[in-house]
């Protein structure tokens, strides 16, 4: 039997549903999801190994105009992702204007075979799907597949198409490996997801999380993390009146970490102010944005 393996990049505008799709395809929660844009800041590999094939997905930050240094780094990882794939999945939100996405995708100069994935298909009619197809008619796409990442519709069709496009190759990673990022990274991402859920306006965008300690004790796992913000006023908001807000953040984060690692967790959160961390090379490196 031939074995296929390769790298598949998931590209698209913020909120198209890239992270939801990655998680649905893997059946795991690797990439954090939020209705707010730009939740995903890093590239995350998700490895799907089955008899006969291995697909190495990479979820990228959404394609955006760089506004500050963090954005530049995020876009660099999008560009890298566009260059080194065997297959590119171009994800669009079926309820978005397809013309905008067409312009963005054409500008990336992707050489790999491209599959257009029309996500959130359950939200639009057959006519609207046909219109989206017609907008992309002149693009030399390998396939156009409407799916719903959320409702898990047509994911089998999408997988079959990806496998068909992969080169013959042995697996790149051990079969039990799900991702290349360390546990601490995912813990930080889960806390960041709760920050997106609980705080408003600029707070999520001005925060990052650094997990300092991840220690497996006999009955529980002890985790200590810093929440980094840019200003004292933001620190006060994260803490909330009499520390109520951070208490809630701690509880929700702990519960989702416990579900993720399947162990009891003791979680300690600290808030630290780092002036303009998003614009300083040393801070960005320390917080894992390379
Ligand atoms: P990303 O920025 O492209 O990674 O998008 P996310 O995966 O974070 O999803 C953005 C929002 O779209 C979240 O609120 C998801 O729940 C929602 N979403 C993702 N896929 C679907 C889908 O198939 N149908 C619907 N209705 N919503 C979806
Ligand atoms: Mg995402």
Descriptive overview:
Strand 4 (87-93), helix 3 (98-107) and strand 5 form a beta-alpha-beta unit. The strands form two sheets. The protein has a six-stranded mixed β-sheet with strand order 2-3-1-4-5-6, with helices on both faces. The chain is α/β, with parallel strands linked by helices and 290 residues long. The model has no long low-confidence stretch (mean pLDDT 87). Helix 6 packs across helix 8. The protein starts with a strand and ends with a helix. The chain has helices spanning 18-26, 69-83, 98-107, 126-135, 155-165, 183-198, 232-239, 244-261, 281-286, and strands spanning 4-12, 44-50, 53-59, 87-93, 114-119, 143-146, 208-216, 221-229, 265-273. It is built from nine helices and nine strands. 35% of the residues are buried. It binds guanosine-5'-diphosphate (GDP) and magnesium ion. The site of magnesium ion (MG) has 6 residues, from helix 1. Magnesium ion binds next to helix 1.
Strand residues, percent: 15-25%
* Spatial separation of the terminal alpha carbons: 39 Å
Percent of residues in helices: 25-40%
**What ligand molecules are bound, each kind once?**
guanosine-5'-diphosphate, magnesium ion
**Overall average residue pLDDT:** 87
Provide the succession of SSEs: EHEEHEHEHEHHEEHHEH
Give the uncertain stretches in residue-range form: none
Overall body shape: globular
Radius of gyration: 20 Å
Strand order of the largest sheet: 2-3-1-4-5-6
The number of distinct β-strands equals: 9
Largest sheet: 6 strands, mixed
Which structural category do the helix and sheet elements fall into? alpha/beta
Number of alpha- plus pi-helical segments:
9
């Amino acid at each position: 039997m031939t074995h296929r393996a390769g790298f598949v990049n998931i590209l698209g505008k913020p909120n198209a549903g890239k992270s939801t799709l990655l998680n649905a395809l893997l059946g795991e929660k690797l990439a954090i999801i939020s209705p707010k844009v730009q939740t995903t800041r890093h590239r995350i590999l998700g490895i799907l190994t089955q008899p006969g094939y291995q697909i190495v997905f990479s979820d990228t930050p959404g394609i955006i105009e760089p506004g500050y240094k963090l954005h530049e780094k995020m876009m660099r990882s999008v560009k890298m992702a566009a260059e080194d794939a065997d297959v590119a999945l171009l994800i669009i939100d079926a309820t978005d204007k397809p013309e905008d996405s067409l312009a963005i995708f054409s500008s990336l100069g992707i050489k790999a075979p491209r599959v257009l994935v029309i996500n959130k298909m359950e939200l639009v009619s057959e006519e609207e799907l046909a219109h989206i197809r017609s907008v992309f008619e002149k693009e030399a796409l390998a396939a156009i597949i409407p799916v719903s990442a959320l409702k898990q519709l047509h994911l089998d069709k999408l997988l079959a198409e990806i496998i068909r496009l992969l080169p013959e190759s042995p697996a790149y990673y051990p079969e039990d490996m799900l991702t290349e990022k360390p546990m601490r990274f995912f813990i930080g991402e889960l806390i960041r997801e709760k920050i997106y859920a609980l705080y408003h306006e600029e707070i999520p965008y001005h925060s990052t999380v650094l997990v300092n300690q991840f220690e497996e004790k006999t009955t529980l796992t002890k985790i200590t993390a810093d929440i980094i913000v840019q200003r004292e006023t933001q620190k006060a908001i994260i803490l909330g009146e009499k520390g109520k807000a951070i208490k809630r953040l701690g509880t929700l984060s702990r519960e989702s970490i416990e579900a993720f690692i399947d162990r009891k967790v003791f979680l300690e959160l600290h808030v630290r102010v780092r002036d303009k961390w998003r614009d300083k090379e040393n801070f960005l490196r320390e917080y894992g944005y390379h």
